Amino acid sequence: MIQKKKLYIYSGFIWCVLFGVMSFYWALGGMAGVKSLGGSIYQHALKREATFIAIVWLTGFMKLGGGLFLLLLLKVWSIKVHRILYYIALFGGIFLVLYGLANFVSLSLAFTGLLSMQIEGYALKWRLFFWEPFWMLGGVLFILSSIKFNEEKNVSIVKGHKI
């Protein structure tokens, strides 16, 4: 069970690092893959607006922070800290899944013509088949990490180990 916990945590950490590195690459002026985001994001990236670039840097650091947070789940904590970490990871994961799912649904409606959106077909397909599932994957990894983290606490209590 501990090995599964590590697998989910390290996978989530890698997901966060990859996502953060993409943001840093774009913040530094890299343009590969930016067109796949489409809409106003692509337009802001082309214009290299200072406020937008600052936001891209900030999101990169937030993504790395999420990865570092997941590494906290590798350690045994007091019950109070354990609960706090568990709920942050669980609710963070739920948020990521719901964010990706909401975008996926709206983009699916646009893809079928039931919703009008200001996004070109190239970006629409990338968002629908890569970016939104990528968000949901990260959410699933956070949720699984939190569940395995919590299961380990319960096993420790049953075995009589003090947390």
From TrEMBL:
InterPro entries: DUF3995
Residue ranges crossing the lipid bilayer per the database entry: 7-28, 52-74, 86-116, 128-147
Domain of life where this protein originates: Bacteria
Keyword Membrane: yes
A Pfam family hit: DUF3995
Keyword Transmembrane applies: yes
Keywords: Membrane, Transmembrane, Transmembrane helix
The name this protein goes by in its record: DUF3995 domain-containing protein
